[in-house]
Design a protein that fits this description.
about 400 residues, alpha/beta, Aspartate Aminotransferase, domain 1, 2 domains, 7-stranded mixed beta sheet, 4-stranded antiparallel beta sheet, 13 helices, binds 4'-deoxy-4'-aminopyridoxal-5'-phosphate, AspAT/PAT-like, Aminotransferase, aminotransferase, pyridoxal phosphate binding, transferase
């Protein structure tokens, strides 16, 4: 049989997608699954956003777009960065992609050579490491421990930088922990990066609007303008505006990097869906007040889940200030046996047995690089969360 490329060795379907697929298969068999594994808002895309896509289609926006994004969406992104982040990018310093995911992949493909190092504060979203590995780069993890609220300790970052470091990746609010980066941490990180001019910085701000307890969001190029020429500020409409299926992400960054990324993008796609770009303009330029209402609702769900999980002996859970995930330790459950006889040695055993026995889908922390934890997404209704927490409790209480 003809062979496959070596670059895919060790690259598997992401654990959260695998868990979602497994849960869907069980659902198709007629089981009532409680799905707490998917990283997407349960809210609908707002009506005015959907209307904009219809209108664009009727007005003939159905031809190939410019590969770097429509001028109108790039201008809306330019306004967004200025309004919300005090960042001023020229239009040729902005790129639109098929989701933040493609933006990040473009950046890696455009810059990484085999043997380069990418510093990844861990636990982290799965795709950073796999994207870097596809490019032949090595991952250098910097653990952000639960005892430090999953924050990135500046000293630990400093110790990880070598002459081969090409990128530092920042993602706060964080997937999978929900951790945020307080201003004092961000300033200390910025100081370290000022001393390391050979390193690019990618900040993935996709959870910017999902922030709680009156915390405020800041991004690194905003607080340290001297770094702006090395920072790629990545964002998208998926999480903030409940638009995961529309596939629109964007970034601002230095002109030479954006140009290289655009070159990369031009070889893999002829631009981004025109109707989705029209919809993204409506999202970015339209009313923003409902984002606060949604954040309030997420906060209520977070509090509910945290309280329930911390009431289960064997589980502990810190209170994150952002995103829509909690990262609960299952250390107290390891070495025990479930009612159906599964021996729980790892967090992967835990989530597998939980799905099989209680039909609750979560994701193992091992997939994000820090065990033994489980990631629970609370981007779902309080009723579903109540049922999910009850089943988790039954599962844990039955461990012997
Ligand atoms: N970054 C992070 C941290 C994410 O969690 C996700 C979605 N799971 C993405 C990027 C991808 O976003 P998009 O839908 O814009 O590709």
């Amino acid at each position: 049989m003809p062979g496959l490329a070596d670059r895919l060795n060790g690259i598997a379907i992401s654990a959260s997608a695998a868990m979602t697929d497994k849960a869907s298969a069980l659902k198709a068999e007629g089981h009532k699954i409680i799905s707490l594994s998917a990283g997407e808002p349960d809210f609908p895309t707002p009506d005015h956003v959907i209307d904009a896509a219809f209108e664009a289609a009727r007005n003939g926006a159905t031809k190939y777009p410019p590969q770097d994004g429509t001028p109108a969406l790039k201008a809306a992104v330019q306004r967004k960065f200025a309004r919300e982040n005090s960042l001023h990018y020229a239009l040729d310093e902005i790129l639109i992609g098929n989701g933040a995911k493609q933006i990040i992949y473009n950046a890696m493909m455009a810059t990484l050579n085999p043997g380069d190092e990418v510093i990844l504060p861990t636990p982290s979203w799965i795709s950073y490491a796999d994207g870097a590995r596809i490019c032949g780069a090595n991952i250098v993890t910097v653990v952000c421990p639960a005892e430090n609220e999953f924050r990135l300790a500046p000293e630990a970052l400093s110790a990880a930088i070598t002459p081969r470091t090409k990128w530092l990746i920042l993602n706060f609010p964080n997937n999978p922990t929900g951790a945020c980066c307080p201003e004092e941490d961000l300033r200390a990180i910025a100081d370290i990066m000022l001393q390391n001019p050979h390193v690019w910085i990618l900040t993935d701000d996709i959870y910017e609007h999902l922030i709680y307890d009156n915390a405020t969001f800041q991004t690194i190029a905003q607080i340290e303008p001297r770094l702006k020429e090395r920072v790629l500020t990545v964002n998208g409409v998926s999480k903030s505006y409940a638009m995961t299926g529309w596939r629109v992400g964007y970034c601002g960054g230095p002109r030479n990097l954006i140009s290289a990324m655009n070159n990369m993008q031009g070889q893999t796609t002829s631009g981004i869906n025109t109707l989705a770009q029209a919809a993204a303009i409506a999202a970015l330029d339209g009313p923003q007040d409902y984002l606060l209402d949604r954040a309030k609702e997420y906060q209520q769900r977070r509090d509910f889940v945290i309280e329930r999980l911390n009431g289960i002996p064997g589980m502990t859970c810190h209170t994150p200030q952002g995103a829509f995930y909690v990262y609960a330790s299952v250390a107290g459950c390891l070495g025990r046996t479930s009612r159906a006889g599964h021996h729980i040695k790892t967090d992967t055993d835990f989530v597998t047995a939980l799905l099989e026995e209680k039909l609750v889908a979560t994701v193992q922390g091992t997939a994000y690089g820090l065990a033994p934890f489980i990631r629970i997404s609370y981007a779902t209704s309080l009723e579903v969360l109540a049922e999910g927490c009850e089943r988790i409790k039954d599962f844990v209480l039955a461990l012997t």
